[in-house]
Automatic annotation (TrEMBL):
A family per Pfam: HATPase_c
Protein name: HAMP domain-containing protein
Main localization of the protein described in the UniProt heading: membrane
A cellular component annotation (GO) from this entry: plasma membrane
Keywords, in A-Z order: Cell membrane, Kinase, Membrane, Phosphoprotein, Transferase, Transmembrane, Transmembrane helix
Stored PANTHER family: SENSOR HISTIDINE KINASE YPDA
Transmembrane segments: 14-34, 292-313
SMART domains given in the database record: HAMP (SM00304)
Domain HAMP: 311-363
Cellular compartment(s): Cell membrane
Protein's membrane topology: Multi-pass membrane protein
Length: 572
């Protein structure tokens, strides 16, 4: 068996202090460490996000530069007028040399990057200009323009699948077609419209190298060991910038990395940055070491102070404990003497004063408490509603008027029995048998009043009849059912009395209208609306006499009746 260990007060005082101290220091330390690391990480995140936005803006500037080329062709009204003419010979030559070719030449010089400008026309009276197909990407060495008839591509799959978004002007989209994927290029496709006639007259295609478009995507702008990835709309990698030796890896599946992203509007792509957590480890390590050092020093200093304070107070508390033990043994002459005028000295003065008056005060308070409880019991009993007597006398008067002598005799006899049992010679307690007899007398009077509309059934355990109970606990419950439970023209009530272990349980069950949860709560509440006063009176009297563990419970739902249960202890 475990032996009971007596721990001195000083240890009891210092141990919780040390535990609370450690918890406080650890909490503050962890909070400070987490806050510092999070602030560092958040500041770094903001700086890196700003760098990504700058890259996004640079890419947007490049795409806008290409889109301005197509818009220049779209809004060239002299070019549109020339493309409407389907004349052969001199007019066709003049359109090519004086309008179309100079316009395309000027657009090639609009940007410093090598681009390919292709124009697909509905007007087949104009000749085609194009270069022989090459195995190598032509944009690696030069910029050039080409003119095709639109009929060349009208049967191609990519042209049939081509879908523009938006409204006039600007029906355009970025897409990889023909050899773009093999050459690592991308093309801006824009429909060329006849604005006056509102119909398509061709298609403009500007091809640019992806590396020229994304030349601002450089991992060194983010940090060492970082990786920049450009993903298309399907999540495939378009471009990856990472340190040498990291190419070909999948940064999306590498754990322990901070991921930042920015959308590339227009292209429908996304720029993502993967920053390894190792960039934060060095700074986080410095913060961690400093936090641990401060926590250890603080804990040590506070622990030494706590031990000293604990020893001072424990010696004084031991004197108080010795005096209390003397009081426990009945020695009220024990006194405490402390020097000074602090709180413990004041406690000693109050303790000495308490010792001289304790016995007298205990006696006075004990007697006063008993008198108060008896007064409360008598007051609660006196509050039973007397309207039952008035109603019964009125019923007796009516029976006398109608000459119904038999019922009149029964009612007078039961009324006399009812009040004889109610008075009970002024006693608060009665037997369970007399309380049931009292309830039956009340029911007999009500059965004469209601006739066949009221049915009452009894289920009584004979073993409980000699036990003691507070009087007048069943009649208020039956009266409450008769006042509030009617549901139609008939009402059934069942009275159950049984013994459960060391308790006696009374149940008044009806098949009436029932009560909702809010009504039950208001009835049993000590404060609040004055409803169900009879039930509350019964509950209060039982609790005053037997304690808070006993009293009234209500189980009910609207439309299915109610069950009011009283529980009291088995006492003779």
């Amino acid at each position: 068996m475990w032996r009971k260990i007596n721990i001195p007060f000083g240890y009891k005082l210092i141990l919780p202090y040390v535990l609370c101290l450690l918890m406080a220091v650890l909490t503050v330390g962890l909070f400070a460490y987490a806050h510092s690391v999070n602030s560092l990480r958040e500041k770094t995140r903001e700086n890196l996000q700003g760098t990504l936005r700058q890259m996004r803006d640079n890419i947007r500037y490049r795409t806008d530069d290409i889109e301005r080329i197509t818009n220049s062709l779209y809004y060239n009204y002299s070019l549109q007028n020339a493309l409407r003419r389907y004349d052969q010979g001199w007019y066709s030559y003049e359109t090519m040399t004086k309008t179309l070719m100079p316009a395309l030449e000027n657009l090639l010089n609009y940007t410093a990057s090598n681009i390919g400008l292709s124009l697909y026309l509905q007007n087949e009276s104009l000749p085609e200009i194009f270069y022989k197909a090459e195995e190598q990407n032509p944009l690696l060495s030069t910029k050039r323009y080409e003119i095709y008839h639109l009929s060349r591509i009208q049967e191609s799959d990519w042209y049939h699948m081509l879908q523009f978004s938006g409204t006039l002007p600007g029906l355009s989209r970025w897409q990889q077609i023909q050899r773009d994927k093999a050459d690592v290029n991308i093309s801006l496709l824009q429909r060329l419209d006849d604005v006056q006639r509102a119909k398509e007259i061709g298609l403009v295609r500007v091809t640019v190298q992806i590396r020229d478009l994304l030349d601002s995507v450089d991992y060194r702008k983010i940090g060492e060991y970082s990786t920049l990835v450009v993903l298309d709309a399907n999540g495939r990698t378009v471009l990856q910038s990472s340190p040498e030796g990291a190419e070909g890896g999948n940064p999306q599946t590498t754990p322990g990395r901070l991921v930042l992203s920015e959308p590339l509007h227009g292209l429908g792509w996304q720029l993502q940055a993967y920053i390894p957590d190792s960039l934060f480890d060095q700074s986080a390590g410095e913060v961690r070491r400093m936090t641990v050092l401060v926590c250890l020093v603080s804990a040590l200093v506070l622990a030494v102070l706590g031990i000293g304070v604990s020893g001072y107070f424990s010696r004084r508390i031991q004197k108080i404990v010795g005096s209390l033990n003397a009081f426990h043994d009945g020695d009220f002459h024990k006194r405490i003497r402390f020097k000074g005028n602090d709180e413990l000295a004041q406690i000693a003065v109050a303790f000495n004063r308490m010792g001289s008056n304790m016995e007298e005060l205990i006696h006075k308070n004990y007697v006063a408490d008993l008198q108060k409880k008896e007064a409360e019991l008598e007051s609660l009993q006196a509050q039973i509603n007397p309207h039952f007597l008035y109603n019964t006398l009125s019923s007796i008067n009516r029976l006398a008027q109608f000459g119904d002598i038999d019922k009149l005799h029964i009612m007078v006899q039961e009324l006399a029995k009812f009040y004889r049992l109610s008075l009970n010679r002024g006693e608060i307690l009665t037997t369970v048998g007399k309380e049931i007899e009292h309830a039956k007398a009340y029911v007999a009077i009500q059965c004469i009043k209601y006739g066949e509309r009221l049915s009452v059934y009894y289920d009584i355990d004979p073993e409980v009849l000699e036990y003691a109970t507070v009087k007048l606990i069943l009649q208020p419950l039956i009266e409450n059912a008769l006042e509030h439970a009617w549901f139609g023209t008939a009402l059934g009530i069942r009275l159950v009395v049984e013994k459960r272990d060391a308790e006696i349980v009374f149940k008044v069950i009806d098949n009436g209208v029932g009560m909702n949860t809010d009504t039950i709560r208001q009835i049993l509440a000590t404060e609040g609306p004055r409803i169900g006063y009879g039930i509350r009176n019964v509950d209060s009297r039982i609790k005053l006499h037997h304690g808070s563990g006993y009293g009234v419970m209500i189980a009910s739902r609207s439309g299915i009746g109610a069950c009011i249960q009283i529980t009291i202890p088995c006492r003779m």
